[in-house]
Amino acid sequence: MVSYYKKACPDGWDFYTGKTINYRDSIGKVVEVPNKKGKAILCSNNVIHASWLPNCFTGSKIPCSVFIVSGKPVIKDHEKAGFRRLRILEEIPQSKLNELFGWNYVEATAPIHPFKIVPPKVSDLQIALLKNWASVWASVWASVGASVGASVGASIRASIRDSVGASVWASVWASVWASVWASVWASIRDSVGASVWASVWASVWASVWASVWAYIGSLFPNIKQWRCIKYEEGKYPFQPCVELWKMGLIPSFDGVVWRLHGGEKATVLFSISKAELTKK
User: Where along the chain do its domains lie?
Assistant: First the structure.
């Protein structure tokens, strides 16, 4: 009988209710859907869902537990199947999920928060990375998210890219994005004043947003072709930003001035005009 992948909550309980079936406690056993009434319908409570595609996250999210199951589907579409009953064969260890998915699941479930890292004193190294990132930004700033999204979709499978992307984005959003943006927002607003802030916030927002997408893209090291951007083969095109991120530094750009923020309050640790940075 064909094997499938079944995702559940980290504690082994089903995602649908969180209290109907515990797959971890059912290893070696057969589980059945409680509601068997009516015609089997996908995305309903009268079938148990599983997929032959490890990256199908429809109806689930990260973090998760993953089980290998077998059964006879009563209904299916292009990415998932519905079952009345399933035999739970084994659980895939968390340490094996990076390999299973083909992307950095472990880090995606616990994203690096740059403002929880003690940043270094800004030196020529950080300025060089900022200059490289500014160069990338100048050519594709509106397309960083599009590049990452399209490349992830092309690498994994177009039909399921949304469920993967949504799950990873939700994890990074919940853990990092909101607080990073709020901290940068407050830091720049305090430094430039409310009147100036009103005219620059859109550019600042876009630059921080791009940093988050650059970081998300780095969680997919198996991708070899990046869309919407020219880059050197074999290199991640947004790596300068990722290196700054992992040092505890977030770049922002208000249309004229580049800044590097770091520390718990996203303090401006370095600033330089676009013109000056280009000369360095």
Answer: 3-99, 103-279
